[in-house]
Specification:
Chain lengths: 127, 248
């Protein structure tokens, strides 16, 4: 049943958030530290483990798939409900960080790509 | 007529679902016919969302009574829940096969984007660690930014900036990838995996690789899938604390 998958997702979500809140308190900070990340990690590990045991079938998994299909629409709704008018004076910051950060990351790709003999010189001569 | 429409106001969440569906549809039409699929429909849809939010107030389009349900769908609970669900597609055995270099590329990519975002924020007058971490996370992806911002308690305008940063990154990645592919040696699966891990924004990586060499898409997507999760884990925790310690 689809709800089984959704229930597993909910369990991972709540456990992750609890971990994030607990860490926040540990570090004396009023916030959630990495809760979403922990929840994702849990779902990857726990979901993989349950699938290998055959405890999650495709029907249950489709319950989780529905929510992951709603992810972009939810993000669109989130973007639509921000205080954009106030953010506009920081608009240049978004351009600088978005464009500059992307260029910076592109420059790093050759460092982590496997070395090849025939073009060892040309792949590293970028400024 | 107005009173008839007003009777629908109690179904605010359903109206919002219809509205988001329409925005997505229009964005995909724009993507297909105006940019010939060069710009991902996802990035256009989020950009369109930000554009409409400009005409609202502090809650964006949700300030309009007919679209009040957008605040429910776009709220942090629904958002975090749907983001977590995307982890189901990621498989540990696949990333293990990809090897240490692919995993290293994730850390390098997140750290590089975060640092660049923080430095940009500092240079433009932001000084508090919460806002800076949110902008740095936005330089990772349009998801890591708002997740970090909400977790740390950033203001809505800083979150909006972080979303815009991530959207600009996605669009820029899509345009830049086919142009730079040769110079960075992006013509084999290993480099595509390193590329996906360093760049991270899934829709940008998929669209950029599709425009370069469609056979490389699954390799780039493999590492990029883990990027958002790692970003949501590292940005509001280790990276935020490092930043706060450095600024203190």
């Amino acid at each position: 049943m689809k709800i089984y998958g959704v229930a597993v997702l909910s369990l991972c979500f709540l456990t992750g958030q609890l971990l994030g809140e607990w860490l926040g308190r540990m570090f004396d900070f009023n916030g959630n530290i990495g809760g979403v990340g922990f929840a994702m990690l849990l779902l990857i590990i726990f979901g993989d483990w349950m699938k290998r045991r055959g405890w999650i079938d495709t029907e249950s998994e489709s319950g989780i798939r529905f929510w992951s299909g709603m992810y972009i629409p939810v993000v669109v709704a989130m973007a639509s409900t921000q205080h954009v008018k106030a953010a506009l004076q920081g608009g240049w910051l978004a351009v600088v960080a978005g464009v500059g950060g992307t260029l910076f990351c592109f420059l790093l790709i050759p460092l982590l790509a496997p070395k090849r003999d025939h073009d060892r010189g040309s792949s590293n001569d970028k400024p | 007529m107005t009173s008839l429409l007003d009777s629908l106001l109690k179904y605010e969440m359903i109206i919002a679902l219809l509205w988001v569906g329409l925005v997505m549809y229009v964005s995909h039409l724009i993507s297909r016919y105006l940019t010939r699929n060069r710009m991902p429909g996802v990035a256009i849809a989020i950009g369109l969302g930000l554009f409409f939010a400009y005409f609202g107030g502090s809650k964006g389009v949700a300030d309009h009574p007919l679209l009040a349900g957008m605040a429910v769908i776009g709220g942090s609970m629904m958002r975090d829940f749907s983001i977590v669900s995307t982890a189901m597609g990621a498989s540990i055995s696949e990333i293990r096969k990809a090897g240490g270099r692919a995993i290293l590329s994730l850390f390098v990519g997140i750290l590089a984007a975060f640092v660049f975002g923080v430095v940009s924020g500092l240079s433009m007058g932001y000084a508090d660690p919460v806002s800076l971490a949110t902008i740095g996370a936005g330089a990772c992806t349009f998801i890591v930014g708002p997740v970090t911002g909400t977790a740390l308690g950033a203001s809505s305008e800083v979150i909006a900036i972080s979303i815009a940063t991530g959207v600009i990154k996605t669009i820029f990645v899509t345009i830049l990838t086919p142009l730079l592919a040769r110079r960075i040696g992006l013509d084999n699966p290993q480099t595509a995996m390193a590329y996906g891990g360093i760049i991270g924004t899934t829709s940008g990586v998929a669209a950029g690789l599709a425009a370069t060499d469609a056979r490389l898409v699954p390799y780039g997507a493999l590492t990029a899938t883990f990027y958002t999760g790692m970003g949501c884990l590292l940005c509001p925790s280790v990276l935020f604390f490092l930043l706060r310690a450095l600024l203190a």
